[in-house]
Here is the input.
Amino acid sequence: MKISELKKGQKVTVRCKYKTLLADMEAEVAGVRSEVVLLELVRHEGQVVDFSSPHVQIITIYEDGKDMPKAWTNCRIQRRTVDGRQYHALAAPKTSVKVNRRKVSRIILNIPGKLKISNVPDGADIMIHDLCVNGIGFECPVKIEEQDIRHLYIQFVDEERDEDEEEQINLEAKAVWKKELPGGGFFYGCRLVNAGENLGYYIADKMRKAQQQ
Here is the structure.
C-alpha cells in the first residue's frame, strides 16, 4: 500500500523517535496532493510539532481493523500551505509493511473468555490465544460489526489457577486487525485501551510461573 492511498478523514499514528525518546501522535488525513499526504496540523501536548530535524526518525502507522497494521518507515513531514491553510505534508519513500505493534512479552493462554458487544446481546464465547499488557489475540465465532470494533469488552477467569487465586480479569480493547479462519469464525488482534488493575499482576504471575517450569 502506498501512503498516497490514504483517504481524507482517516486517522494515522505518527511515531517520532530521537535517541531514547519516543512519542506517538494521532493525526487526521486532510487530503492527498501529488503522492503527498496532507495532515491536519499534528500537535503534541497542545503544541504544533516541528518535524524538521534530520535526526528524528518518523514512522507512520495505519490501522483499518481488517488486517494487521501497516507502517511506513523513513517518513518526512514538512509544513505546507495549501489554499491558504497550513498542513503537515507527509511523504514516505517506500510502500507500507505489515507490522505487529506488540513489542512486549506476551503469554500464551488458549483459555475461554466472554466477549460483550452490542450486536450479541448475550455475549459471545471466545478463545483467548495470547495476552500482554497492551494487547490480546482471540478467536471469535461471530463477525464483529464495524461500529463495535473499537469497543470490545472481554472477561475471563483462568481455571488453571488455584481456587483461592481465581479472579475475573476485565479488559476493554480495540480490534486493529482480523483474519477469517478456514473452519469458520475470526481471529482478532487487539490493542488494550483499558483494563482492571489486576491485569499486570496476573501477567507477571503467569510469566514468573512459566520461568520456573
Residues 68 and 100 are 7 Å apart (CA to CA).
